[in-house]
Amino acid sequence: MNYKPPKRRFEKSGFVDPETAYYVPLENVTNVDNDDMKTMVDQGRYFSIFAPRQSGKTTFFKTFSKSLEANYIFILMSFENCEDYDLKKFYHHIQKKLYEQLLYQLEMIQCHQLQQVKQFLNTHQLSDSYSFYQLFEELNKIITQKKIVIFIDEFDGIPVHEIKNFLSTLRKLYQEYKDKNEKALYSVGLVGIRNITQLTVGGVSPFNIADHVELPSFTLDNIRDLYQQYTQETNQPFSEGAVQKVFEQTQGQPWLVNRLGSILTQQIKPETTETIHETDVDDAIEILIDEDNNHFSNLSEKILLYQETFKKILDEPVVHLAEDKSQAFLRQYGLIKKSNRQAVVSNPIYQKRFSHVSSKQMKPLPSQKKKIFICYSHEDKDFLDKLLVYLKILKINDIDYWFDEKIRTGDDWPAEIQIAIETAHLTICLLSNSFLSSSFIQKREFPGIQARQKEGMIIFPVLMKDCLWKYVPWFKNVQIYPKDGVPLEDLDEKEQEKKLMQIVQDILEIFGIK
Description:
- This protein has helices at 37-42, 57-66, 87-108, 114-123, 129-142, 163-177, 220-234, 240-250, 254-268, 278-290, 294-305, 307-315, 325-332, 348-353, 381-396, 415-422, 433-437, 439-454, 493-510, and strands at residues 46-50, 72-78, 147-153, 185-192, 211-214, 318-319, 336-339, 342-345, 370-375, 399-402, 426-431, 458-463.
- It is an alpha/beta fold.
- The chain has 4 domains: 37-214, Rossmann fold (3-Layer(aba) Sandwich); 220-290, Helicase, Ruva Protein, domain 3; 294-353, no CATH class; 370-510, Rossmann fold.
- Helix 5 packs parallel to helix 6 (163-177).
- The longest helix has 22 residues, at 87-108.
């Protein structure tokens, strides 16, 4: 049989259109009770879906939505790139996407209450979580046809300051209408890289009413089916040994499976009917491991944030700890997994690609956004303001810094601070007696900072006022700035300016900018 040019391709990013790319449906997408997602929707459940980046989630949900069309009004939204939105812009985003899809689908089913819904939506503006609640409270009174199912993709992109309110509102809607069959917001699915059901904000879990589903990787049969689709189009076969080799080396990670398919058919044995064997897979893996691509670059950025933990797991299996924040971070990006009660690297290809990870102090990749967390006492806000004038030069060099003077009251560690520490490459500590005596800093911020320091994050203490910092174990064997150890408070204005400029220069040098 002669070789025929393929009609489709192995997709490596975004939605997989079965018309243009090889596609296989994921199997066994169920909750802990073995209910599939269609059953959960039919039961009116709210649930979260865990899916690391480039695991086929977008394709899965767009395909899944088609199974709901006969009985539900299905609305798919995304919170991608919404993390920096203020409250008004965020809810305007929701309103635009939600109203457009809702009206379109009500028109398609010729809903008898369409005009009533239009009149209501024309007057009801979404501005906060309460107005979101009022929306569905009113729709419950108007709509009698079909049920609304909302899936929110990229839920991790929600503005951090609104997580608690938004999730609490969904929980309230669920609890108030869970025993009623006729309800507008019938089922909700939140898609993200975190287990949202375990998310704690302000000391409480705002979405603990939900089921939890994890998208599986490709099975051996999935890979065999995917490659067979290529064979049927081109007459070029894969040996069974080659398929099993791909499964063994990728453990079914969808991006890796598709990328190897491309390399094998376009670089190793292109435009031929010669069988692809195990040795060809070995050659393709060597090419893959050596190439630069966005998939590996994104994962490298995440590894650098928790390189000590990853290195330990890379060298040998360690005990899997569900509550360990470092392991949880690496797992949510698909870098590690649980296997026989141990934490292991997710597949041999990742093991080989990232074997260079060292225990040296962390440095961001050239393409990676460099981030600084500023830890300070509110009583030293005047010194922070002086420092900020000089820190602005950092942003010109693609270095961002984060601080928040508002989140200092109460006993709970705000999510904003947690995320800022988790993703920072360097922490500036503004030392003073107020800083050292702050129970919030001691109990809430510094445990996270110390954990990140073990992973390679740099501690950069700036001596603002004379204090007893030498007696604090946190700063043992850490360089204090200014390097002469003279508090900035003791200097005149001109000398302070010189020291603050030197501090910024030192930070730039740490990030390799001279």
